[in-house]
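#help-structures
NK: newbie question, is this the right format to request a structure? protein is Roadblock/LAMTOR2 domain-containing protein
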Amino acid sequence: MATPPELEQTLTMLTSHRTVLGYMLLSRSHPITIIRHSGVVFEGDQGKKYAGAVGRIVQSVQTGLEEDDIKFMRIRTKRHEIMISPGERYLLAVLHDPTS
C-alpha cells in the first residue's frame, strides 16, 4: 500500500522518538487488519492481540458516545501508554514507554 508523503513523514518522526516502542496502522474494516507496523511488540500474535484490543476500545468508546467524532485517545497502564488516533478508514495506534 502506498502511503501519502505526509503519513510517511509522521511515521518516520514517531519511530525516531526514543520512548516510542512501536506503531500500528490499522484498517477499520471487519475484521480489523494491520496494514503496517513497527516495533517488535506488534509482531505476530502479540500484534494481532493489540490490533483487536485497539479496535474494541475504539468501537466501545464510539458506541458509548452519542457522537462519532473521537479525534484522539490516550490510555495509560502501569507500564505503557497507548495513543490512538481514529480516522474514518484507518486507526493509528502508538505504544510508548512514559517512564523513559
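mod (FA): yep, format's fine, and the C-alpha cells are attached above. The longest strand covers residues 20-27.
NK: thank you!
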